[in-house]
User: Fold this.
Amino acid sequence: MNQSKAIFAIIVQQKWKKRPHSWLIAILATVAFSLTASANVFDPFTQAHGRYVWGDYILAGNSVMRCITSADPDARDVNNNGNTTEALGPLLGWIHYAACLADSQQTTNPAAFDPVPNDQRWMVFNNTDTTTSGIFNSSEATFSIPPGADITFARLYWSGNRAEAVNDGTVNPTTQVPLLQANGQQGTAASPWYSCNAASATFDWTTYGSASTLTNGAIVSRRQVAARRLDGQLNQMRIRVNGSAYQTVTADEGPYFGVQNFGGVYYASQADVTSYMQQQLDANEVAGVPTQLAVTGANIASGQGFNCHGGWNLAVVYEYPARNATYAPDLRYVEIFDGMAEAVSSTTGPGDPGNPDEVNLAMSQFTSASGVVEPRFGLVAYEGDQGLVNDQMQFEFGEPMQTNVVEPKTGRTDNYFSSTIGDYSNFSTGFDPQLTRNPSWANNDGVDSKVDGLSPSILTNSGANLNVRIFTSGDRFVVQVVTFSAVVASISGTVYEDNNNNGQQNAGEAGISNVTLTLTGTDSSGAPVNMTTTTDANGDYTFVNVPPSNGAGYTITETHPAGYVDGQDAPGTVGGSTVGASQEPDKIVSIVFDPTVGSGFDYDFGEIVSAQLSGTVCINVNDDGLCDANEPPIEGVTITLDDGDSNTPPLVTATDDTGYYEFIDLLPGNYTVTETQPAGYNSVNDADGGTDNVIAATVQAGDNIVDQDFYRGTAARQPKRFCVR
Assistant:
C-alpha cells in the first residue's frame, strides 16, 4: 500500500454488553477497517447481533430496479409536451431493450463489459405491486422460518442513489462536462447534474456493438428529468408480509451518505423490525410446518437511469430455546455487523480501469477451529457491477494461506461484487430457508445479498486473526452488512426431575435451573481443561468452545442440587454414537470428544425430588391413638425403614428425646417401617391395622408423609403410641 495514502482505522464497537468467550469458531469479534484515501466509512460498523443460538440467520432481499422496456411510459413528461403515455425510451435516445434484458439474465461475465455494467444500462423502477396506491417501486423476497422457532432479531437495510452527480475532476472535461454545463447544471453540490452517471452524458459507451453519439442537448435535458430523484424519503421505506397492510419503516440509523462524484451520491439506511417480523410470524404460523414469509419491500428512494441502484435487505435470526434435532441440531454463534463503508475506484474516462481502492478488515479475536464447523459468511453491498471485473474479496491477504473467495454465482475470484442475491450454503444439516424472489434476475442491478460457506481450512489455519481484503479497480460499491455464523464445538445436556426414575425426561418432568456442572480432563495437546457452566431456566446447559480431548476423555461432574435425591445419569452422543459412561454419584466419564466428528448432546443428569417420612413413639395414656402433648415420649426406640422395591439398603434410626424419628431423601417406592419393641412396654396397635410394630408406606417423589398415626388399644402394662407423621 502506498504509504502516502491516508489510513483510517475504524474499530467495530460492541452493541451487546456481554462478550462471548474466546472462540473456536469463525466469528467476527472486533473488526478493524484500514482504508485508502478514496475509501470512506460514513457509519462505523458495530455489532448488531452476537449470541449463541440454537438456530441461524437468513439474508433476504431484492432490487427495486430493472432495465427500461419499450412499454415504459414517459410518466414524468421529460419532453414537456403534456403526453405522459408515450414511450420513454426513444425520448432518451435508448434502443437497447433486448440487450439490456439479456444482461439481466446473464449468470457469468466472461470478460469486462460483457455483460454490460449497470453504469451503462438505463434503469427504471421495478414494481411487483401494481394495485396498492402510493407504491412507486417494489420487489419481493420469500423465505421460511422452521416450525416452533421465534424471530429474535430482524433488521431492515436499504440503499439507493440520490442522482446528484458533480464534476469531481475525474470526468473528461472535453467530451462530457461542456454539454452538461450548457444545459444549465454546473456539476457542483449546489447545482448538481441530475444523474447517477454523468460520465455517460455526451455519448453512450460502446456497450452493445456501436456507440450512440449524442449531439442533441435536448436528450441530455430529458435524461436529467427522467433520472432525478422525485419519489420517496431517504430515511423511510415500506414493508409488508404475505400481502398484509404496508408498514412504514423509519430509519433508526441513517441515512448515511457516501462521496459525491460523477456517479451521484450513494446512501444507506437501516431500522429494527424485530417486533414486526415476530408478529407476522405469529399471524401466519401453522403448527408443525415451516412458515413461509413473502416480504415486499417498497418505496426505496433513488434516481433512475445509468448506474442507478435501489434495493433492500432483511437480516433475520431465528432460534429455539433449546436444541431441535431436526431444524437446529447444532449450537451456532451468529454475529451481524452493520454500517456503511464505500470503496471508490476513481476513473478518468470511459473504459479506464481507474485507480485501485481497497478495504482491509483485520478480524482480531478470531480463533481457529478443529474440523468441519460449517461456517457461513454473508454480505450485503450495493452497486457492485457484474460487468466490471477485478472486484475481489480475499481472506488472509498477504499470508501464506491467502485465499481468494469465489463468487458463488459466477464462480470467479476476480469479480466478487457482481449483483448476486442468494444463499449458496450447503444445508446438509440444519434448515434451508428456501429463498425465492420476484423478480428473480441473475444480474440484480446493483444489489449483492449473498451467503456462502467457507473452506474449513480458513478456520483451522487462521490462528488468532482473520484478515479480509475487499478490493476494486474500476468500480464503486457500498458495503452495509457483514455476517458470520459457525457451529460451536460444544457438549450439552439437561438436568431434570426424573420423578419416575426411568433415566429419561418424560412429559411433565421439569428441568432444574441454576445447577453447576464442571467439565474436566486433558485436551489433545496435553493441556488441562476445566470449564464450568450452569443450567438455564429449562435445566439445559452447554459447554462451548470445547477443544478435542485426549484418549481418556472428559468428565462432567454435577454439583448435586439441594432437595433432590440422585437419579440416573446418562451419557450422550458425539456424532450420533454414544460416548462416555455414567459413574455415580453425579458423574459422566470417558467422554472422548472430537469436534470433527460432531458436537456432544444429551449428557443428562436425572434427579428425584426428595421425599421424607416421620413419626413419633409415645406412651398413649388415654389410648386414643394420638400422641398428645401431655403424653410422655419414648426415647431411643430403634426404627428401621426397608425398601420393598430393593432400590436401597435398609435405613435405621432411633427416636430422640421427644420420641420423634424421620427418614429423609427417600426415593419413590414401597416401604415398611418397623419398630423394634422397646423393653418394658407392651405391644401397640398400629393405625394401618396390619402386623404389629410394622407400617406399610408408599412414597412418591416429593412426598412429606406426616400425621399418619399407628396405635393399638391399651395393654396390661403402659400402652405406647407408634405413629408416623
Observations:
- Residues 382 and 447 are 5 Å apart (CA to CA).
- The radius of gyration is 37 Å.
